[in-house]
Amino acid sequence: MFITALAVHDDITLDWDAAEATITALSEERRAALADHLGWGDGESEPDETANQLLRQAVRDLRAALDGSGQLRRELDRTRVGHWTIYLTGGFSTGDPPTDLYEVFSALEVTGLDMAIGFSWPPTDSPEESAREGGGSM
After folding, report:
1. Are 83 and 8 within 8 A, CB to CB?
2. Beta strands in 68-131 (DSSP E)
3. Alpha-carbon distance 9 to 115, whole Å?
4. Peptide bond preceding 97 in cis form (omega within 30 of 0)
5. Distance CA 137, CA 71 (A)
6. Which end of the chain has less Cβ packing within 10 Å, N or C?
């Protein structure tokens, strides 16, 4: 079973506009990580605009799932732990990703978009402490 998570502290407002700035300024290292993650060949990244479009769609899909309006909303579970909302997706798999939303979470994590938007992992006593500990998704 594969499960991944994104967490947001009550004191944080998700900044969806930050995603666009991060996509535009994405480093070659992050683009190569995305290409490797998606299996785009020999580690060479796809043309920037292809990667940008994929990431913009991932952000739209996640936002819609969180709002309960997207097609992927059924693939999302949420729970509360202290001052944190934890969003989870996943399931059983024999090779392919267990859910489409799992791929969205993963793409955001390997590119750092999750942290740019305001998600953190692991949840700690404060969002600042979580960011110092590496942030990202599980």
Report:
1. no
2. 77-81, 84-91
3. 12
4. no
5. 22
6. N
